[in-house]
Amino acid sequence: MSRLLVEVVGASVRLGDHQALENVDLALHGGEIVSLIGPNGAGKSTLVKLVLGIIEADSGRVTRAPGLRFAYMPQRLAIDPTLPIDVDRFLDLPHRHPAAERQAALARVGIAGLGRRPLQALSGGELQRVLLARALLRRPDLLVLDEPAAGIDYQGQAAFFGLIDSVRREQGCGILVVSHDLHLVMAATDRVVCLNRHVCCSGTPEAVGDDPGYLALFGPRTAAALARYHHHHDHEHALSGEVAHPTDCGRR
Hints:
By secondary structure, this protein is α/β, with parallel strands linked by helices. It has helices at residues 44-52, 87-91, 99-108, 124-136, 154-171, 182-187, 212-218; strands at residues 4-15, 18-29, 33-37, 59-64, 70-73, 142-146, 174-178, 191-195, 199-203. It has a domain at 1-31 and 38-69 and 183-252. A six-stranded mixed β-sheet has the order 5-6-7-3-8-9, with helices on both faces. α3 crosses α4. It is globular and about 45 Å long.
């Protein structure tokens, strides 16, 4: 078993009157890509904040490996069109890096030579790769990616997830991906965690047929995404997201 980076055990988080997470278990290991999926309001962002130590659990525990280095790649970056900043200067925020390291990071993500390009002049795919290069400069043990393929066409998405896989293999870091791109997630991950305030199910992708419980959670348009992943719910969710008939969850 590879190095355990983060372990979440029985964690619950309440935000005001809203129960964001309830009795959640999650383990992240080095060299593994884990995809976190779930509908809007399922608690994905809350769980990521819990993993990163931004918030604390009301109950349960979160354990992180000593000296663990994180890197976070946001879903999107709002750039003021009047801000005079190029790629090199952006990579040096908030910590400066030698020019050789910046150039190597850009080359690693496939955009060598764009260091002097203004951020505002980048395409969506180029900007995502710049964000990834900036994350890799931290030499993370755990890389957290929030909707990393947002704003990229399908071909670019496939290439980006291929890049993520090669980074994992070369650097041995753990990768947590939060995504709604279920087709790509199912093809490019080692383990899928389905969240709806609690962990509904967790397992490796595998060839399956339609699953009524999964389709009830995500809708019929996700049927094609189930081609490589199969699980079942032993419970139903009310419209509020609460468990209507709670029993154990499991994989077939």
